[in-house]
Fold:
Amino acid sequence: MKSNILLGIALGILVVSFNLFTMIGNSGFLLTKVSDYAESQIKLRNFSTALELYSHGYKIRSQKKFKVGIGVSQKRILEASIILHSDGNFSQAQKGYKEILKSVLVENQLLEDEAKRFEGYAANNYSELELLRLADSFQLKNPIKAFEMYSDCLRIYPDLKNKGTVEDKILKLAARFLQRTRAQHQEGEFTQAIKSYQKIIMIPCLSENLKLEATQGLSLAQQQKRFDFKVAFLTFDDGPSTNTLKILDILRKYNIKATFFVTGNNSEFGANVYRKIISEGHVLGNHTYSHIYKKIYVSVDSFMEDFLQLEELLHERVGIRPKIYRFPGGSNNLVSQTTGGKKLMDLLIHTLNAKGYQYFDWNVNSQDAEVILQDTQVIIDSVLSSSQDKEKIIVLMHDTIAKKTTPEALPEIIEGLREQGFTFDTLP
Structure:
């Protein structure tokens, strides 16, 4: 009887959630109502439903309240999954861990790391004894991993029988882990050091001296990270087009400079856009004249001919010869290997380096070129999620005539990156 009532409540929540999602998506239903309803589900301990609601709200508009709600829901789901795990209910625990990992956003890196490890333990049905044996096997070959696994064992099984022995092993390894963390800190790896200090502080059996040292190290690393400027280099490929003008307007509004890797456009419109990019303080980079892969990636000579054709055009139109460039498709594209051979890219880089040119790839992909017209929110989420825990980012975006959603996404990308602590600059 009780299980039937609970099932009825769960089904009712799902129906309400589905109807709510439909209203939001189709009629602009007030997002505050989503947040209010999600908050009520937290109070009712319906954490999965709350996570689903907050996530749906975040997909529509990446507001802070949805981020916070997602984080709270994930934490509660993790706690509930650990209880299931400790009771030997591996399959249900695994579902909870996977739910966290599939979330639209995971801002708490420690929580995500725990969910990944615990999901692996649950998938293999490791009992507390099996997990301890596995940790023992790592003591010599990978003491840091052993330390992590012993700590995980205490987290999942807080009442295990030989708790004192496990705590002793953790304390012996903790000093080594702290030593490695200090090295990360001294090398300026502040993000990784912060995560490591936090792991150490969370150990319940930690000695007061080690806890104090880790706490002080964490505080210092957090302060240093705030002053270690995070820099975002916004880059736009394949213009000029009317979308370039829209992007320039947005950049002017936010007082941000960017880098434009342009292609050849010998029209008066093209010349005007090139001039506008330069006059507004942005940087022009060479992206080849034609951008036709099968033409430029035949040989070094064919690439250089196309490359220099654009250089001459830019010199004629705006009086500059860019010293930075980006390969169409990036330096790891497969077309160049197919048409020009596996050594072509190395030869091109060597040739261009010798002439004083520098190429730039990217480490954050906006995904705006994965389809002809990408969804605006996908572009926003791709950039903001890929930028997490990075100190320097080069963001790949496109400003061809077809990429109408890229300028639409740009304001939220800029605001989101600023929230993450990034400043903006042009490539050298």
